[in-house]
């Protein structure tokens, strides 16, 4: 049976034993179920890829939340300044990710981050056009996006 399905079943079992199907009890059950599966993986033959992928997803989520916080502060600070220092531009970011879901996730995470907006993907799916509010150094921004979001998204989907 798929490890994700077993983990979800353990989360619902935990919530059922607690007598409340709240988000908190489901998350607690999912975390406890994850660790129970991790401990029993050699006994029941669960792939280690599941645990690595969950780790990568959590790392991507935490990285995105950190970037979201930093960019929100930067945009808010620029808005309340008497003389804004933003230098908007549209930059071209070459894409390393190839699958539809990876491109979709990268473009959506970029668009959700304040100060950046995914404009378009070229028809050959090799380049992403990004409108950046702070494009003082376009090469540094492209490097930051590629080494951050795009790399972590690619790691989530690698086998």
- Amount of beta strand: 5-15%
Span between N and C termini?
18 Å
- What Rg is obtained from the alpha carbons, in whole angstroms? 20 Å
Class based on secondary structure composition and strand pairing: mainly alpha
Q: What order do the strands of the largest sheet run in, or round the barrel if closed? A: 1-3-2
Output mean pLDDT.
92
Mass-distribution shape: elongated
Helix percentage: 55-70%
Number of helices: 5
Low-confidence stretches: none
What order do the SSEs take from the amino end to the carboxyl end, as H and E? HHHEHEEH
Major sheet description: 3 strands, antiparallel
Number of strands: 3
Polypeptide structure, described:
The structure is a single chain. The two termini are about 20 Å apart. The protein has helices at about 5-20, 25-45, 50-80, 100-110, 140-155, and strands spanning about 90-95, 115-120, 125-130. The longest helix is centred in the middle third of the chain and has 33 residues, at about 50-80. It has about 160 residues and is mainly alpha-helical. The chain has a three-stranded antiparallel sheet with strand order 1-3-2.
Essential attributes:
159 residues, mainly alpha, three-stranded antiparallel β-sheet, 5 helices
């Amino acid at each position: 049976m798929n490890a994700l399905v077993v983990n979800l079943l353990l989360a619902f079992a935990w919530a059922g034993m607690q007598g409340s199907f709240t988000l908190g009890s489901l998350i607690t059950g999912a975390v406890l179920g994850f660790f129970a599966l991790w401990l029993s993986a050699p006994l029941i033959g669960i792939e280690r890829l599941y645990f690595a992928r969950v780790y990568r997803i959590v790392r991507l989520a935490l990285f995105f939340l950190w970037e979201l916080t930093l960019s929100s502060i930067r945009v808010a600070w620029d808005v309340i300044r008497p003389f804004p220092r933003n230098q908007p531009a549209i930059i071209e970011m070459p894409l390393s990710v190839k699958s539809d879901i990876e491109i979709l996730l990268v473009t959506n995470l970029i668009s959700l981050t304040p100060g950046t907006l995914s404009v378009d993907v070229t028809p050959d799916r090799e380049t992403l056009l990004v409108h950046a509010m702070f494009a003082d150094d376009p090469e540094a921004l492209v490097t930051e996006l590629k080494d951050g979001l795009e790399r972590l998204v690619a790691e989530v989907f690698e086998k």
